[in-house]
Amino acid sequence: MIAEQHIDAMDAAQLRELTARLLTEAKHKDAVIEKLTHENAVLKRLKFAAQSERFNAEQKSLLDETLDADLQAVAEETEHLAPRAAAPRERQQAKRQPLPVSLPRREVRHEPASTTCACGCQMKRIGEDVAEKLDYQPGVFTVERHVRGKWACAECERLVQAPVAAHIIDKGIPTAGLLAQVLVAKYADHLPLYRQETIFGRAGFAIPRSTLAQWVGSAGVQLQPLVDAMRDDLLRRRVLHADETPVAMLDPGAGKTKRAYLWSYCSTSFDRDRLVVFDFAEGRAGRHAMEFLGHPGEQAWRGALVCDDYAGYKALFAQGITEAGCLAHARRKFHELWANHKSTLAEQALALFARLYEVEREIADLPADERLRLRQLKARPAADALHAWLLAQRQKVPPGSATAKAMDYSIARWSALVRYIDDGDLPADNNWVENQIRPIAIGRNNWLFAGSLRAGKRAAAIMSLVHSAKLNAHEPHAYLKDVMQRLPTQPASRIGELLPHRWTPQPGC
């Protein structure tokens, strides 16, 4: 009735505007559904055709679990856009087998807050519904038995029962603790799902890797809004680090792997909030960095970016982003000369770089204004001495030599390399972000044999949460478990409370 009155109050122009907006939204939703439907068909074709590809056994296993996770993620996104159209999928699901009676059980009872009926009568308990969830602590499975008592009033026949508790995977058997275990093992401990299947089997309940993959796909979809919020928060910082590292990605159509890239963006070590957000891309082109930081326009990020001399970042600087060079990259070129050839010129250069880094160690824990003052007082003379030495020595070495190339790198980028001296918020180098990527190199052969861009994006999103939790001194499993317990009922306006740098553990975490 209220809606009808509201429509009656609208004039013709407002109705036309509302109709146009609703039609635009409907067309956009239809386009997304069509895109997801096509992607689903492609994934199914890849899944059933994978046996004929020229992969080894391990790669085939990794491809299978990736495709299963992708299919589940696409299904969830489609269901979110068109829940009625997706309803038949639920009826086609196989009946779940009961959990083994040998597993220890812990009851969690859910009863109404009051069992007194509105008519004043005391209600009687007439039954209960029981739902079992599979939980896991390292090496041990347990079962949570959620018991929801049914209470009825004999006089007015009113029935009362506690509502079903919200879970990250609706109608699924895993607890948030088990899901956190699977995600941390895959994206922090670098254990593919087929290895986790074996580990769980030793604990008494072998979970098929296809089921684990579906859980990963579902969890990735549910956690994505949290990662989006963290990216938005990160882009409010004035100074960011950026770096990229190659990873292998399976190319099912070609039957081999191809090179993709994991881009890393993070706040500085001077920032009180510690955030790192990874972005997976199929290439190293500068457009990927531009897409992450924002296209030219009002919403584009316009801070200072600490990065190396990779050409892909150059377009960003043309759009108004300030370039801050990496002193460590410049120093590293001389260190390689000294380590490999015992170059005396390289040794002299390293001594001059050491003076700059001595200042940085001295001021690391000071506030920005004090860092700026001491840099001007101590680092500026040291930088001027290094620059003068580079210019003088460059005239004495032959063009094209390794020493000349090392000197040319610093001379050509000198303004960017010493920009930190005039800004107390800028770090001297990019080592901070490189340290965030380094642990990933350990497991890149395990978790990024992706059969699709979606799988890589999902890995980047979950790793963003895991590594940001570590940066803020949180145990990743405890963080993800608590977040996935709270996320289903967390209002969208308060999702920021669950970000790693703002998260406060609940009692018992």
TrEMBL record:
Domain (Transposase TnpC homeodomain) ranges: 36-108
Chain ranges of the Transposase IS66 zinc-finger binding domain: 115-157
Domain Transposase IS66 C-terminal: 464-501
Residue ranges of domain Transposase IS66 central in the record: 171-457
Pfam families: DDE_Tnp_IS66 (PF03050), DDE_Tnp_IS66_C (PF13817), LZ_Tnp_IS66 (PF13007), zf-IS66 (PF13005)
Annotated Basic and acidic residues bias: 80-93
Region described as Disordered: 80-99
Family annotation (PANTHER family): BLL1576 PROTEIN (PTHR33678:SF1)
Protein name per the record: IS66 family transposase
Lineage, opening ranks: Bacteria, Pseudomonadati, Pseudomonadota, Betaproteobacteria, Burkholderiales
